[in-house]
Amino acid sequence: MTTRVMKTAGRHALKGSFLAARVGGRAAVVGVRAGIRRTQRFPPLPDLPEGRYVDLPGRGEVFVIDTGAPYDGAPTLLLFHGLATTSYLTWFSTIEELRAEHRIVMLDQRWHGRGIVSERFSLDDCVDDAALVLDELAIPEVIAVGYSMGGALAQMFWRRHGDRTAGLVLASTSACWRASLGDAMFYPVLGAANDRFRGHYRARVQEVRSSLAESAVIGEEMSAWAWAEFRSTSAWAMPEVLGTLGGFDARGWLGEIDVPTAVVVTARDRAIPTSRQRAMAAAIPDATVHEAPGGHASVVFDVQHWRPVFLGAVAEVVAATRPSLVE
After folding, report:
1. Where are the domains of the chain?
2. Considering only CA atoms, which of 8, 2, 87 is closest in space to residue 49?
3. Quick one: DSSP state of residue 137?
4. d(Cα 225, Cα 213) in Å, to the nearest integer?
5. What is the pLDDT of residue 112?
6. What DSSP string runs through 47-94?
7. What's the CATH code, domain 2-321?
8. DSSP three-state, residue 327
9. Which of 6, 197, 243, 257 is deepest in the core (most CB within 10 A)?
10. Is a pLDDT exceeding 70 seen at residue 325?
11. What's the whole-number mean pLDDT along residues 298-319?
12. What is the CA radius of gyration of the chain?
């Protein structure tokens, strides 16, 4: 009887995990298409910096974009991208302005785009990858900047590599991804399914990763480029990544953050409720709040309103950290 119940539960968990992958991928597709319909066009595609692979011994090759310093002493921003996207796709709408005054370093995270397809997705591994990339580039200290999932990574980067974190800019993100009764029911079930079927997901993600060109295709027509970049992250990565994010909870140590921090809140965010974003900001000592009027995808589809707010938050943190970054 017990065996039969376990088998039945396993089948339900598998269906639920498959559903999470399909829903995650389909929701992202719907979101992109809806954004295109609303705006009729993407923001203009700037002249993007080319990336290269950096070998991290014992870990794998990471796809890294490094713009170099625009002038001696320029501060370095370490950019962490959002869920189900890539570094290019998250940051293309702001990269031109950012690189004019800062050195930009960003990489595709594990299970995303051209990132490492490890045995499992881990936030700790992602931020340690970033720290090792900084070692390779001989960069001692950065301002960690994160959007959505990248905000969780920026928080973790401070937690694990505080001696290299001069400041934080956290956009459209939260300190905890399991904050409601529905979340409390969803994430444990998803995690149990992931433990059983992770190998299947990983194989599917690896298939997509292996099919990608050695470098991102840049210089194409905007919508074709964006669609190709979006599809470079497999929908089968979503159960694993979401399951890991469900275990992220920084609320116990946010009060220990001791670097200048700016929080960009998206006022009509349905993916990460504004209340969670504000609660995170309130828990970080002396954090400032900068409000953008749009939703979660404002970084791309409401860029005319989101970008000035975001750039203002970056400028504020850079000004506060400048003595540290110049020393």
Report:
1. 2-321
2. 87
3. T
4. 13
5. 97
6. -PPPEEEEEETTTEEEEEEE---SSTT--EEEEE--TTS-HHHHHTTT
7. 3.40.50.1820
8. coil
9. 243
10. no
11. 95
12. 19
